[in-house]
Design a protein that fits this description.
heterodimer; A: mainly beta; B: 4-stranded antiparallel beta sheet; globular
């Protein structure tokens, strides 16, 4: 089973700051997904990236898939309190149908 | 359209009991996966069902089992509950599998006392 390492585990910033969350592994993935989870709820899919080097933007969020499809990053510009939550990366192995999740990054944006 | 529905939302059980959790996927989704989420271990894969067949299974003891019905609804069962089974159990559905992402339910919070 492949491992996904997310960093940092915890991040507390002020409104308006920028931040980047990283997701790394030694394995190659067929696709990588980012989710956001709020307390008491299930994770909500933000984006799926499938092509090495792919960059996707979702308003103030920018997602990048590494060229070798082993890592990914999530960059948030001008963070807002509504961005607070647990951010999870999840990868699908090149064979098989399961998703492996990273441990998550707990982001707190203070007003 | 309706999302993924999990019932019950909260459950308190005693050690040694057994429990059944239910998941209704989004209409048209044939793949249903179950995950256990705990503060220490994060999201751990339990199993995936597709068209009533278990397609993949995680590293959990045989006390954890599941099934999927012809209408794609799924249940998971945990027998002989242990304190360590206390967790948020999440169900996720998709059309074909994990490749393009899942829609998760809100989960069932199981507390074993």
């Amino acid at each position: 089973t492949q491992l996904l390492e997310q960093s940092p585990q915890f991040l507390s910033i002020q409104e308006g700051e920028n931040l980047t969350v990283y997701c790394n592994s030694s394995s190659v993935f067929s696709s990588l997904q980012w989710y956001r989870q709020e307390p008491g709820e299930g994770p909500v899919l933000l984006v799926t990236v499938v092509t090495g080097g792919e960059v996707k933007k979702l308003k103030r969020l920018t997602f990048q898939f590494g060229d070798a499809r082993k890592d990914s990053s999530l960059h948030i510009t001008a963070a807002q309190p509504g961005d607070t939550g647990l951010y999870l990366c999840a990868a699908k192995e090149t064979s098989g149908s399961r998703l492996t999740f990273g441990e998550g990054t707990q982001l707190t944006v203070n007003p | 359209k309706a999302g993924v529905t999990q019932t019950p939302r909260y459950l308190i059980k005693t050690r040694g009991q057994q429990v059944t959790l239910s998941c209704s996927p989004i209409s048209g989704h044939r793949s249903v996966s179950w995950y256990q989420q705990t503060p220490g271990q994060g999201l751990q894969f339990l199993f995936e069902y597709f068209s009533e067949t278990q397609r993949n299974k995680g590293n959990f003891p045989g006390r954890f089992s599941g099934r999927q019905f012809s209408n794609s609804r799924s249940e998971m069962n945990v027998s002989t509950l242990e304190l360590g089974d206390s967790a948020l159990y999440l169900c996720a559905s998709s059309t074909e599998g994990a490749a393009l992402g899942y829609t998760f339910g809100s989960g069932t919070r199981l507390t074993v006392v």
